[in-house]
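DM from R.C. (forwarded with permission)

"hey, sorry to bug you on a friday — could you get me a structure for this? deadline for the figure draft is monday and I only need the backbone to look sensible"
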Amino acid sequence: SMDDPETAFCTLANREELNPEEDSIHYCLYQFTRNETLTETNKLLCDVCTQRHCGPKNNISEKKYVYTNAKKQMLISLAPPILTLHLKRFQQAGFNLQKVNRHIKFPEVIDLAPFCTAKCKNVAEGNTKVLYSLYGVVEHSGTMRSGHYTAYVKMRAMNNHLSDLVLQGQSQASETEPVKGQWFHISDTHVQPVSVSRVLSSQAYILFYERVL
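My reply, with the result:
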């Protein structure tokens, strides 16, 4: 945050202790939220430096804009009641797009705290965990040109806590276990009960988590 440079790059939980495994959702989040240095052609146009260099009275057309090295980091400033993670399952291969088929590991319960700002707006003071429980997965089989979408969905009891989060933004639960329920695999009109290990071994394309803490 520009308002508070002291906490601009601070997170709710220590991200340096993560050491995430490659080909995992934690690694994807770690890379997406890493601290980047902007130098050379990526330098930032600095209004303060420009003002200092030219003085406020100069005509804008005569200003010599000043660019400076900077740091940039994308962090979560508001923890959502529903977390949707969309994996980029394609890459450029010459002039063609190619599907990325490798398995990306994802957990039943994920802690977003290492990816949240220290002053995350809807996390109670003193909390160092922001936990989410998996309840849905979209899987794509096939290639870039043709394929089939199926889904894994967890059937669970009505979650009043989630309703409170959505309606009032309140969070008072302290579950660290996944929300209990039965998983189903849905392919067009075919619905089949499946084990959680089957879900976690799927080639996830989109992941849906609900906030539990």
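R.C.: lifesaver. The first strand starts at residue 36 and ends at 38.
me: no worries. The chain has four helices and 13 strands.
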